[in-house]
Write a structure and sequence with these properties.
Belongs to the bacterial solute-binding protein 1 family. This is Sugar ABC transporter substrate-binding protein. Keywords: Signal, Transport. By secondary structure, the chain is of the alpha/beta class. It has 17 helices and 13 strands. The strands form four sheets. The protein has a five-stranded mixed β-sheet with strand order 2-1-3-13-6. The chain has a four-stranded mixed β-sheet with strand order 8-11-7-12. The longest helix is centred in the first third of the chain and has 15 residues. The N terminus is likely disordered.
Length: 431
């Protein structure tokens, strides 16, 4: 879960980061920025990488890349540690603040990167081998790596949300195509329930999965350029009302407040629900389900539009290097290797995660993946999120509000009012 820091904690963390990291060079004997060792394969060192992918469906691909890296760089040892994504942010912050136990490299969610950088926890990467051929990265994922004009990470994968659906169940319910609007989504879900007995739509009680409904009505969490908190708006109230109606109408069963992601995925894989919202990271797991042994039974479509538009959020993950690493050269080389177009193509081919390099989309391994080809145009129209230090704190209040809403403990209006109050504790000088 995400945790907000008090001003006192941030000040203390900044002071500690400066003293521990020696102004950002981590005390390492790394080559000066912009220089490269005469023979990078001779670099020596031991680094720890905290990965946050699902260990069963995605982990093997990344571990295979590590083996390739170590074969090319025999003098660099990589300690691979899988940390659950809902724990990594707090674990890294705690370790970095303490000055011990932090990994050399972390898979940082796009919303965490600027926050970690603002606290002094990340090594600047401009001019290093880690950030090779910067102009090749897609603008949106690259923008998530920047803080105060400097790069503090390298884009690993980018993502967004789509509607995943069981073609067989929709066809049995009389629908040959995926719903294009929220109204159609409701009706299709009700038809599935009536004609097949399966649930129509499984909701995931997670703040990220609320964003398509909010964007669809023209809402958002913040107006960052103008420093305005916009979460408590009529547009968002309409969006929360839509969620409430989907549950009360029976189009979506009342979701479990805990473990709803796993429950929704299991229901889709087993044919107990026809539709869910999810991203490209989920596909490797989805195809493990009995309903999708024939991959052609899985449909992928843009999220249904609200009254204003169809809007999916922009997400993704970055490679970031801890400012206190004692093996910066080895860390730079590892991040460079893991973010090459070839590495990204391998990841796209095997587990359908979307590359962040433009050139990777010309690789046959990427062009040959129909799932990536389907997600790419959805990504191109995704709604940008604000890459601000406080961005990692936005989801917890929204999650708590979502849980209260589906639990029947609040109304859409009261939910948004509560979230607004919590945001004002984070953004004290915003209107």
């Amino acid at each position: 879960m995400r945790r907000a820091f008090s001003a006192a904690t941030i000040v203390a963390a900044l002071a500690l980061a400066v003293s521990a990291c020696g102004g950002g060079d981590g005390g390492s004997a790394a080559a000066p920025a912009g220089s490269a060792p005469s023979d990078p394969t001779k670099i020596k060192g031991e680094i720890t990488w905290w990965d946050t992918v699902r260990p069963d469906s995605e982990g093997p691909t990344f571990q295979a890349l590590i083996k390739e890296f170590q074969a090319k760089y025999p003098n660099i040892k990589v300690n691979y540690v899988n940390v659950p994504s809902d724990q990594a942010q707090n674990k890294f912050q705690t370790a970095a603040q303490a000055g011990s136990g932090a990994p050399d490299v972390i898979r940082s969610e796009v919303a965490w990167t600027s926050q970690f950088a603002s606290l002094g926890y990340l090594q600047p990467l401009d001019g290093t081998r880690a950030l090779e051929n910067e102009s090749d990265f897609l603008p949106s994922p690259l923008s998530s790596t920047k803080y105060n004009g400097k790069a503090y990470a390298v884009p690993q994968v980018t993502d967004t949300l789509a509607l995943l659906y069981n073609k067989r169940l929709l066809k049995e319910a009389g629908h040959e195509e995926a719903p294009k609007t929220v109204e159609e989504l409701k009706q299709t879900a009700l038809d599935v329930k009536k004609k097949t007995g399966a649930d129509g739509l499984a909701l995931n009680v997670d703040a990220y999965f609320l964003l398509p409904f909010m964007y669809g009505e023209g809402g958002d969490m913040l107006d960052a350029p103008n420093k305005k908190i916009t979460v408590n708006s009529p547009a968002n109230a309409k969006a929360m009302g839509t969620i409430d109606d989907l549950i009360k109408s029976g189009a979506a069963p009342k979701p479990a407040i805990q473990d709803s992601y796993a429950n929704a995925m299991t229901a889709l894989k087993e044919g107990k629900t026809a539709m869910i919202y999810n991203g490209p990271w989920s596909l490797a797991e989805v195809y493990q389900g009995k309903e999708f042994k024939d991959k052609e039974n899985l449909g992928i479509a843009p999220v249904p539009a609200g009254s204003v538009k169809a809007g999916a959020p922009t997400g993704g993950w970055n490679y970031a290097i801890y400012a206190g690493s004692k093996n910066l050269d080895a860390s730079y080389e590892f991040v460079r290797f893991m973010s090459t177009p070839e590495a990204q193509a391998k990841i796209a081919k095997e587990i359908s995660l979307l590359p962040t390099r433009a050139s990777a989309y010309d690789n046959p391994d990427v062009t040959g993946n129909k799932d990536v080809a389907t997600f790419k145009p959805i990504l191109d129209t995704a709604v940008p999120r604000p890459w601000i230090p406080e961005g990692g704190q936005l989801f917890q209040p929204l999650l708590e509000g979502y849980q209260a809403l589906v639990g029947g403990k609040t109304t859409p209006e009261e939910m948004l009012k509560t979230v607004d109050q919590k945001y004002r504790g984070i953004f004290k000088d915003w209107s």
